Amino acid sequence: MSGRILVVDDEREMYRAIEQELSERGFVVTPCDSADQAFELALAGEHDVVVTDVRMRGMSGIDLCTRLVANRPDLPVIVMTGFGSLDTAVATLRAGAFDFLAKPFDMEELHVAIDRALAHRQLREEVRRLRREVASSRGPSELLGESAPMVALRQLIGQVAESDATVLVTGESGSGKELVARAVHAASRRAQGPLVAINCAAMPEPLLESELFGHVRGAFTDAKTTRKGLLLEASGGTLFLDEIGEMPLGMQAKLLRALEARTVRPVGGSAEVPFDARIIAATNRDLEQSVADKTFREDLFYRINVVHVELPPLRARGNDVLLLAHHLVHRSAERQGKTISSIAPAVAERLLAYGWPGNVRELHNCIERAVALARFDQLVVEDLPPKIRNYKPTQLLMASDDPADFVTLETLEARYVQRVYEAVGRNKRLAARILGVDRTTLYRKLARYGVEPPSSAASVREGPPSRT
Questions:
Q1: How far from chain centre, in Å, is Cα 249?
Q2: In whole angstroms, what is the distance from residue 131 CA to residue 326 CA?
Q3: Which of 61, 106, 144, 252 has a beta carbon 3.0–4.6 Å from 54's, enabling a disulfide?
Q4: In Å, what is the CA distance from 198 to each residue of 192, 215, 402?
Q5: Per-residue model confidence as pLDDT tens digits over 375-397
Q6: Left (φ > 0), alpha (ψ -120 to 50) or beta: where does 96 sit?
Q7: How much is the pLDDT for 401?
Q8: Residue 308 above 90 pLDDT?
């Protein structure tokens, strides 16, 4: 990592040695033998990190640090001293120093400290930029994000909205599939019509049929009045079929007929009634695999999969995590009547490091909780849930030469299988292809390593255990 370093020490030999070492490592170094001069140079805004000695003629390094923190809080200061007492260390930290090095120190230690300071500064700059982005966003319903997958997603939504083609939205649970459906509807010529949503997994087949197609009076015991179904209620607008992968097979056949004929027959009725609703379906299942497993009709799959919109998981969206986090902080703080204006850089680090298996829904829950527990006008690490606060990313490769650091082949395989599985959004078909195994073997490994419990479908395919 390169950067512009201001080195302050009134011992010329010392700062020349540091200058030479850092220059050889690719840094642009400005040496300075006066804290007063260093303060003026720092105010000019041309440096990324300040490295200063403590004891110097005139203004001390601690006083310089105090003044820089007050006037340039974005500029990290690393303090060096040959008097490495506890009191000196405490004084530098109270002055707001980013790090403290006791002389004599190894140049590698200084290099590591500077790299950390540069990363910290870049993260703070990113937090400020994203905060401005949130402030200028158009509202809570917007699909926030500037990562390449989200830019492509918004472009596709704009293209899809121009037609009445049926759309299939896929993505992991909690990634915002309904938000995509609402965006497509809002950008379409049907925007003035209703957007009607139903969760296909939330009700048994008879009730789902009545909800979608309606019923006539007396069609069943509780049918005391005639009721229009959601396909008719959505006429002129959009019907959003959430979790369509969970729809019972019998209901799939009835839905397919309705979509092909563009008419519905209410339960207990004898007449076909035309409807004019655009269909958007969503699922977190691999429908191609469901078709292969005979749990989803192939003809219905092709009927709803005219335009496929795949929503990226949150972990694949880079710094969008921070953009969304700032948006949610402001919204949650306003709703809870709190004055929270930002998140601490350490919080941003945790949010970027965490894998977010629950996607945007989990991030929303995390921020809502953090805002509720916050004691200051800035979210700090202690406000985060323990599993995010203490998260350690999985490491598959090690640079260690210590035999105690190595693991068994089985442990290494378990970590790698889990890493690949999570990286592809728990898509078994894709994970099996990347790992170079068939799906039956993948199911067995996922169950063996505790990544997923054995499913009944996997058990049927696996058959009896091998004797080899």
A1: 34
A2: 6
A3: 61
A4: 19, 17, 56
A5: 888 899 999 999 898 887 655 54
A6: left
A7: 59
A8: yes
For residue 180 the two structure tokens come to 């995509």
The number of beta carbons lying within 10 Å of the beta carbon of residue 111 is 15
Contact 374, 340 (CB under 8 A): yes
Q: How far apart are CA 429 and CA 38, in angstroms?
A: 59
Cα distances from 244 to residues 9, 87, 186, 283, in angstroms, run: 68, 65, 21, 6
Distance CA 449, CA 335 (A): 42
- Phi-psi label, residue 207: left if phi above 0, alpha if psi -120 to 50, beta otherwise: alpha
| Contact (CB, 8 A) for 256 and 281 | no
Q: Within 13 A of 87's CA, how many CA atoms are on the CB side?
A: 1
Q: How far apart are CA 180 and CA 152, in angstroms?
A: 13
- Dihedral (CA of 185, 190, 191, 193) sign: negative
Residue with tokens 């499913």: 455
Q: From residue 179, give the alpha-carbon distance in Å to each of 50, 171, 233, 314, 337.
A: 45, 12, 20, 14, 26
Side-chain-side CA neighbours of residue 108 (13 Å): 0
Cβ atoms 129, 292 nearer than 8 A: no
Contact 340, 377 (CB under 8 A): yes
Length of the chain: 468
In DSSP terms, which residues pair with 196 in a beta bridge? 239
77 vs 80: CA distance, rounded Å: 10
Q: Is the dihedral of CA 354, 358, 359, 365 positive or negative?
A: negative
pLDDT for position 227 = 80
**Angstrom distance (rounded) from CA 349 to CA 140:** 24
pLDDT band at residue 199 under the 50/70/90 scheme? very high
Distance, in Å, from the CA atom of 177 to the CA atom of 283, rounded to the nearest integer, reads 8
Q: What are phi and psi of 167, to 5 degrees?
A: -120, 135
- In angstroms, the Cα distances linking 393 to 92, 157, 276, 345, 466 are 31, 33, 49, 18, 34
- φ, ψ of residue 222 in degrees (nearest 5): -90, 5
Q: Mind giving me the DSSP string for 300-327?
A: HHHHH-SEEEEPPPGGGSTTHHHHHHHH
Classified as helix, coil or strand, 167 is strand
CB 146 within 8 A of CB 320: yes
Q: Which 3-state string (H, E, C) describes 406-431? A: CCCHHHHHHHHHHHHHHHCCCCHHHH
Three-state SS for 80?
strand
Q: Please answer whether residues 276 and 223 qualify as being in contact, where contact means their C-beta atoms are separated by less than 8 angstroms.
A: no
